[in-house]
């Protein structure tokens, strides 16, 4: 079982003189235990995506370490990382002319040689991945013709076909209706693999995450269980909004109601 450790990451976009202070990372440390679903929350521009990019070997940190089971991912090849870490981003790939099956089958690439064709096992894993996101029978559909929500589920299926040890999700529910937001997070949770997800909707984060990290101005300001983290003072300080917090009537996790002046 695989764990992820980020320690004291620092990263600045486009050189130090640039004005993007909000995306800087400073002293960011975070841990995802094997099988744990960890949420990263914070206001827009607080550094969530920057942090995730350092973790999945896209943006190289200036200092600090990204360790996957004690192996520094920045000292490994991109293929080594792709065999272990799957990423689901907000943007969809430009899969012009590709079928749903083709897109999901891309998840098998890190495990194959350059000229290897699809094996029976590959095809089985692709079919299985599509079933697990509720898209069986979509194999031959053109990816470009799908709705945003269907595309998002295909990208999750591609990540599952990769058979990763760690899953990283950047705002995975942005394009989805409430039903599919809940279904997608339920599916991810059932996988029981270490998952780090930035989540925009704090009520979804409260419902699905084992632990939360709050990032603000590039620094991790607090971490803990949803109950420990999601307090009215924190939401006021970090998000600048008054909130009422009580318990979800059925499941007992924190429920946030934003207080708006009519």
Describe, in short, the structure shown:
30% of the residues lie in helices and 25% in strands. The protein has 262 residues and is of the alpha/beta class.
Description:
This protein is an alpha/beta fold and about 260 residues long. It has one domain (about 5-230): P-loop containing nucleotide triphosphate hydrolases (Rossmann fold). Helix content is about 30%, strand content about 25%. The protein has 9 helices and 12 strands. The protein has helices at about 50-55, 80, 100-105, 120-130, 150-160, 180-190, 200-210, 225-230, 230-240; strands at about 5-10, 25-30, 35-40, 65-70, 70, 85-90, 165-170, 195-200, 210-215, 220-225, 245, 255-260. The strands form 3 sheets. It has a 6-stranded mixed β-sheet with strand order 6-7-8-3-9-10, sandwiched between helices. The chain has a 4-stranded antiparallel β-sheet with strand order 2-1-4-5. The model has no long low-confidence stretch (mean pLDDT about 90). This is ABC transporter ATP-binding protein. Pfam families: ABC_tran (PF00005). GO terms for molecular function: ATP binding; ATP hydrolysis activity. Keywords: ATP-binding, Nucleotide-binding, Transport. Belongs to the ABC transporter superfamily.
């Amino acid at each position: 079982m695989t764990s992820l450790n980020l320690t004291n990451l620092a990263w600045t976009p486009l050189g130090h003189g640039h004005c993007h202070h909000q995306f800087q990372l400073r002293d960011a440390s975070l841990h995802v235990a094997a099988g744990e679903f960890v949420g990263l929350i914070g206001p827009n521009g607080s550094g969530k995506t920057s942090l995730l990019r350092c973790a999945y070997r896209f943006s190289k940190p200036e200092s600090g370490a990204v360790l996957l089971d004690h192996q520094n991912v920045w000292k490994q090849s991109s293929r080594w990382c792709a065999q272990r870490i799957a990423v689901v981003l907000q943007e969809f790939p430009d899969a012009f002319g590709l079928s749903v099956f083709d897109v999901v089958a891309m998840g098998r690439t890190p495990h194959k040689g350059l000229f290897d064709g699809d094996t029976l096992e590959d095809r089985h894993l692709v079919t299985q991945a599509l079933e697990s996101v509720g898209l069986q029978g979509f194999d031959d559909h053109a990816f470009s013709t799908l709705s945003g929500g269907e595309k998002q589920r295909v990208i999750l299926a591609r990540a599952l076909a990769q058979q990763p040890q760690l899953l990283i999700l950047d705002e995975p529910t942005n394009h989805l209706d409430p039903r599919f937001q809940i279904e997608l997070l339920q599916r991810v949770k059932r996988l029981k693999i270490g998952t780090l997800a930035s989540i925009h909707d704090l009520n979804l984060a409260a419902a699905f995450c084992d632990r939360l990290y709050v990032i603000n101005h590039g620094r991790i300001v607090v971490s803990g269980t949803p109950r420990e983290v999601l307090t009215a003072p924190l939401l006021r300080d970090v998000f600048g909004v008054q909130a009422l917090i009580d318990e979800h009537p059925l499941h007992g996790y924190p429920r946030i109601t934003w207080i708006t002046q009519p």
